[in-house]
Amino acid sequence: MSATDLTRRFRFVLALFMLALIVSGVTAFPLRWELNVLASWMGIRAEADPASLSGLAYWIAYVRSGLERSYDAYPFLAYGTDWLAFAHIVIALFFVGPLQEPTRYDWSLISGIVACLGVVALALICGPLRGIPIYWRCVDCLFGVVGIIPLIYCLLISRRLKAMNPQSDGPANVTGATTK
Question: Is the N or the C terminus of the chain less surrounded, counting Cβ atoms within 10 Å?
Answer without folding.
Answer: C
